[in-house]
Amino acid sequence: MISRRGFSTSARWRTSSDSPTSPSISEKTTKSTAGSATTNPAPALPHLTPTGTAHMVSVSNKAHTIRTAIATGTVRFSNPTPLTLIRSNGVKKGDVLAVSRIAGIMAAKKCPDLIPLCHPIMITHVGVDLAVIGAKNGTQENDFGAVVVEAKVQCQGQTGVEMEALTSVMGAALSVVDMCKAVDKGMSIGDVRVVLKEGGRSGVWKEEGWGSVVGMGGGGGGGGVW
């Protein structure tokens, strides 16, 4: 299985090589550990108060920036029938890809109603696309084909849109399942994840090695055309 790693534009600390007059490794380790204990506190979940109570995080002091997130996911079939019917537009409920694309857009707008601590934000763009993948195609691990969903969400605000992008992918994927369940009871949804994030204090993050199946790219504040 291909491992996935992310990269960020944020700066990384670098240490110089040891010189003959440098302290011993054990001394440096002790000093480093002691220093990190006071300057680098352990990461904490921001949605929890000191008493452990859940609350919505305040973003009042954050800057308004253009924020973009792309998420992806895959619906895998357990028999060859769905793939054949989708390609021939023979599914009784209608055009699977067109309906599921709209389902993904609607899902993104419903994100704060589904995720309790997600901020209601003014979304400025939602783009959803789906690609039919044949059996044994590329890196997709499937025997009977699949549908890959990619969703891109943008806003100009104080918090990111990763959850909206993930919710969009799940909405589209569930629509594919709903429309094909009459001919395939064993479908599965998997690999749902954020693959790109732009904007805000953390800058740009992208999953290393990820490439869009449908030609979807980063935001860059470009108005959401892909």
Describe this structure in words.
Helices cover 26% and strands 24% of the residues. It is an alpha+beta fold. It has a domain at 72-208: Molybdopterin cofactor biosynthesis C (MoaC) domain (Alpha-Beta Plaits). The chain has a six-stranded antiparallel beta sheet with strand order 1-6-5-2-4-3. Helix 3 (96-109) packs antiparallel against helix 5 (162-180). It is elongated. Residues 7-23, 25-37 and 219-226 have low confidence and may be disordered. Residues 56-200 form the Molybdopterin cofactor biosynthesis C (MoaC) domain. Residues 16-39 have a biased composition (Low complexity). One of its GO terms (molecular function) is GTP 3',8'-cyclase activity.
